[in-house]
Amino acid sequence: MQVWVHWQEQKEIILWQGGDDEETQIASMALARKELVLGRDTVKSEEEINGSSYLITESAWHDIVNDCAKNGRQFTIDPFVSNN
Fold this sequence. Notes:
Layout: E1 3-7, E2 12-16, H1 22-28, E3 34-37, E4 42-43, H2 46-49, E5 56-57, H3 58-71
Parallel strand pairs: 4-5
Antiparallel strand pairs: 1-2, 2-3
């Protein structure tokens, strides 16, 4: 399974391998292979990608986010607590 996760607060989309075990799903997100931040990993046009394997267009980024909103499941991850 591969899904895109939209992390709204960080303006980031994450390509996640998913998993069926609810206990390890959130922890496995830390192992995601691809993270794309709007503004850092996006460009205005296809020409600006210029052969890059990590850049996408802003419109493609927004298409993924819109698809997440329309077809995805929403869940909340509680803030991490430091043990220090």
